[in-house]
From TrEMBL:
<dbReference type="GO" id="GO:0003677">
    <property type="term" value="F:DNA binding"/>
</dbReference>
<keyword id="KW-0235">DNA replication</keyword>
<dbReference type="InterPro" id="IPR022649">
    <property type="entry name" value="Pr_cel_nuc_antig_C"/>
</dbReference>
<feature type="domain" description="Proliferating cell nuclear antigen PCNA N-terminal">
    <location>
        <begin position="1"/>
        <end position="124"/>
    </location>
</feature>
<feature type="domain" description="Proliferating cell nuclear antigen PCNA C-terminal">
    <location>
        <begin position="127"/>
        <end position="254"/>
    </location>
</feature>
<dbReference type="Pfam" id="PF02747">
    <property type="entry name" value="PCNA_C"/>
</dbReference>
<comment type="function">
    <text>This protein is an auxiliary protein of DNA polymerase delta and is involved in the control of eukaryotic DNA replication by increasing the polymerase's processivity during elongation of the leading strand.</text>
</comment>
<protein>
    <recommendedName>
        <fullName>DNA sliding clamp PCNA</fullName>
    </recommendedName>
</protein>
<dbReference type="GO" id="GO:0019985">
    <property type="term" value="P:translesion synthesis"/>
</dbReference>
<dbReference type="InterPro" id="IPR022648">
    <property type="entry name" value="Pr_cel_nuc_antig_N"/>
</dbReference>
<dbReference type="InterPro" id="IPR046938">
    <property type="entry name" value="DNA_clamp_sf"/>
</dbReference>
<dbReference type="GO" id="GO:0006298">
    <property type="term" value="P:mismatch repair"/>
</dbReference>
<dbReference type="GO" id="GO:0030337">
    <property type="term" value="F:DNA polymerase processivity factor activity"/>
</dbReference>
<dbReference type="Pfam" id="PF00705">
    <property type="entry name" value="PCNA_N"/>
</dbReference>
<dbReference type="InterPro" id="IPR022659">
    <property type="entry name" value="Pr_cel_nuc_antig_CS"/>
</dbReference>
<dbReference type="GO" id="GO:0043626">
    <property type="term" value="C:PCNA complex"/>
</dbReference>
<dbReference type="InterPro" id="IPR000730">
    <property type="entry name" value="Pr_cel_nuc_antig"/>
</dbReference>
């Protein structure tokens, strides 16, 4: 038996909204410690890694390890039937071929349940190596979303340059160039407005804005986003999911000799 109950049901909706445009279907691995998901996007350019710890749920029960293959657009459609204040419970029996979503209104006057069929997905678990990053930038999630959106008007790629002074995002295209520079301000009045840079060595890397704009769909989940970069390894864009885990996106840098 697997059952996970989340009083903050809106958080679950935000997590699915953040990944459904990158992943069509994915395997949710559940065990006694929580739920994890790891999948490449359909074009095999980026990787999504989600980790939700059992103690972050209001009740969590997983009698034995379980993998649920779920179509994310189906799940997203069903979650649209849940109110933002609803309590969401996800449950399935050990050998079931469906998973059930139960939505309860706060006053318990309305309870609805929906079942979707589980898919048999054959996906290999990708080992993500532990990496020491040359540069880790923490900045307001809304600011990062705005930067990616604004620079998309100018070019298809963004060059991220990280130095001790700050982090700069640059794009160039037919209509010209754009540069946005954020200075480090660890002492911002509100923690979520701080820009904090931890750096061992300066880094300059180029990434496809199309994917970064997909990643920033996770902005509603967290006030802050962390970008971890090193030369020639994938960028990690991480959003904390309340006090229960994280959602990470990985994106390989573009090589300089590519024209696209």
């Amino acid at each position: 038996m697997f059952e996970a109950r989340l009083v903050q049901g809106a958080l679950w909706k935000k997590v699915i909204d953040a990944i459904k445009d990158l992943l069509t279907e994915a395997k949710w691995d559940c065990n006694s410690t929580g739920i994890t998901l790891q999948a490449m996007d359909s074009s095999h350019v980026s990787l999504v890694s989600l980790n939700l710890r059992a103690e972050g749920f209001d009740t969590f029960r997983c009698d034995r390890n379980l993998s649920m293959g779920i179509n994310l657009s189906s799940m997203s459609k069903i979650l649209k039937c849940a109110g933002n204040d609803d309590v969401i419970t996800i449950k399935t029996a050990d050998d079931a071929d469906t998973v059930t979503f139960v939505f309860e209104s706060q006053n318990n006057e309305k309870v609805s349940d929906y079942e979707i069929r589980l898919l048999d997905l054959d996906t290999e678990h990708l080992g993500i190596p532990e990496t020491e990053y040359s540069c880790v930038v923490k900045l307001p999630a809304g600011e990062f979303q705005r930067i990616c959106r604004d620079l998309s008007q100018i070019g298809e790629s963004v060059v991220i340059t990280c130095t001790k002074e700050g982090v700069q995002f640059s794009a160039s295209g037919d209509l010209g160039t754009g540069n946005i520079k954020l200075a480090q301000n660890a002492s911002a009045d509100k923690e979520e407005e701080a820009v904090v840079i931890e750096m061992n060595q300066a880094v300059t890397l180029t990434f496809a804005l199309r994917y970064l704009n997909f990643f920033t769909k996770a902005t509603p989940i967290s006030n802050q986003v962390t970008l971890s970069m090193s030369q020639d390894v994938p960028l990690v864009v991480e959003y904390k999911v309340a006090d229960m885990g994280y959602l990470r996106y990985y994106l390989a840098p573009k090589m300089e000799d590519q024209d696209d």
